Amino acid sequence: MGSLSYQSKLVSFDESRRTGCFTTLPIRVHSRNDLADAASRQFVKDWAREMGDGRERHTYFSFSPVGNWSSLIYPEAVPKRLGVLAYLSDLGLIHDDGGEGLSIEDAQVEHGDLYAALDPDDVSTMTPDSRAMKTKKLVSQCILECVSLDRELGLKMLAAFRDVWLAISERNSDKEAQTMEEYLKYRSENGGMLVFWPMLQFSLGISISEAEEALVQPIIDAATEGLLLANDYFSWEREYRELQSGQSKRIVSAVDLFIRTKGLSIDDAKDEVKRKIITAERDFCERRDELYKACPDISLKLKRWIDCAGLAVSGNHYWCSACPRQNAWKHADTPISNGVKRKLSHGAVVIKQEAPAKKRKDSPVFDLESSDSESGLSEVSSYPFYKPSELALEAPSKYVSSMPSKGVRATLIEALNTWLHVPSDRIKAIMSVINSLHNASLILDDLEDNSPLRRGYPSTHVLFGQAQSINSANFMFVRAVQDVAQSLSPAALVAVLEELEGLYLGQSWDLYWKHNLACPSEAEYVNMVDHKTGGMFRMLIRLMQAESEVTPQLDFHRLTLLFGRFFQIRDDYMNFQDYTAQKGLCEDLDEGKFSYPVVYCLENFPEYRGHFLGVFRQRPTIATVDAHPLSKESKQHLTACLKKSGAFEKTIACLTDMERDLEIEIDRLEQQTGEANPMLRLCLAKLSVKGIARIGEVGTSK
């Protein structure tokens, strides 16, 4: 087994001791510290431009006299990845600073904004000028770069950043730990340590399996303790002064723990934390050596992982001992690295405003004693006219709206508004209209396809009955058109009506082919998709253009055409991909649907036509008959036919070509507008076929 090699530079013992650093582990700094500093400077500029709250003038970022924070905690990072790591680290720092100045409730709101921004699948409605939307625009390019550099590890890192840290940060913040064990558990979550390790994996391009993680976990636990306590030791004076000045509302530190629980003075408590740091580093080395002794054949990859974990501990320690973030209190006028002096005056606290309580739409209460019965009218004649409750009418629509959603349409609206600048009230109305129409179409699709499931949940008509579901879907169409007429322009109303007509035309042929067992040609299938699926994308673009303040209008025809085709054919492929991967599902075959792979197979390999039509002929075709999925054997046979015909390879090739064409079209629009659109590119990256497992590589069970 080869020995470890390094690209980073070793920091000498004497040099490290000049800052008050006392780590017992070797320290290294990345050879391209300039890349990290450049990314940090870019983040400061981006924050100032997008957020406009001035917080960057009151935050110390990753810069330090001894190196950028990311250069010291990721000294062996792949150089191309160092910049995005520094960018995310500074996002964490400014977010952390903002949270310290807020109440626990307000900090949780801010966590929610960043959580949504870092979620590629977030579908919440955001107004263009909201803080949440600004945050999303800020991080979209960073997310896109992460995914471009390393899709698997990038998504894992972002998921940890979002789901592991932000989703639990500030939870139990009002409960003071009484033991070191309780404290370290809380700090591991609140302090972002659960996201640090996926970030370290991303920096190295190393994927660690669950078994490997379990093997090295005791070593990582010691490293985590060393990282957290070093931060507590060097940040104490800053945090204590900010608490005293009112700039911070709370302090969470091991120093405070020892003062509270052991009655120690500040100096003695700091000495105790120092001893704990040295002990944690010793435990790290001992556990590492014990593992190497017990597993002499341990992989070089794991050795590198463990070694870099130790370098992160020492690098963080060294940075904390020297960085302005933890030490500027010693010199009140020390400027922040971006050239702005830190102010120690009271910061403004954002007060969370409670949303007004929704008014209940209860039926009116009538005083029948004063009715016209006294004048001789019958009881029935005396009943007043009033609008009944909408509970039964809205129940099916609320149910389908509650189902998990890809959120592509909402994301697309937000991304396109980078160019179209539609006012926030109009964007909200457009999103509401599109969601209503889309959900109405889902209810009718499931009925027309006799499908018992929608995204793994019972279809709406299974729960509410066919008649009630149809009535609710029709009402959603009526309300959507009504909303357009009341809230948007006449041009928007024309767009909705024209595209609805196209949607029904496309659906008519989809239903015709299934009912008559007639397989369309590829050209006919694509034309159906252009109207049925593409119509909804075309509608949202036309609605936005009708309300846009930008002139002259951009030509989005090719973008929506390609996007509709790409989205539907990808969905067709994923239906089979889910089946081969999960040994189930494949609802398209249950419905007798002529999806793109089936169309290609039957058009080019007529010998399989009898196989598909024979199976499809046996499925129930009317909603009054209970829908039963095809047998596992039938699905396996039809899937095998598609594999033999090369239909799956053809589908992937088609999607790859369209994805490239979409990227070219985005390039054209960016050049025409002079404005990059990372949110739109991220929307496409989320759907990219590059991250999809190939069906030929996943076998079905026999």
Automatic annotation (TrEMBL):
- Cited Gene3D superfamilies: Farnesyl Diphosphate Synthase (1.10.600.10)
Q: Name one Pfam family in it.
A: Terpene_syn_C_2
Recorded E.C. number(s)? 2.5.1.29
Q: Which PANTHER family match?
A: GERANYLGERANYL PYROPHOSPHATE SYNTHASE, THIJ_PFPI FAMILY PROTEIN (AFU_ORTHOLOGUE AFUA_3G01210)-RELATED
Tell me which UniProt keywords the record has, alphabetically. Magnesium, Metal-binding, Transferase
**What's an example of a GO molecular-function annotation for this chain?**
geranylgeranyl diphosphate synthase activity
One Gene Ontology term of the biological-process aspect is: isoprenoid biosynthetic process
Question: What name does this protein carry?
Answer: geranylgeranyl diphosphate synthase
Question: Which species expresses this protein natively?
Answer: Alternaria tenuissima
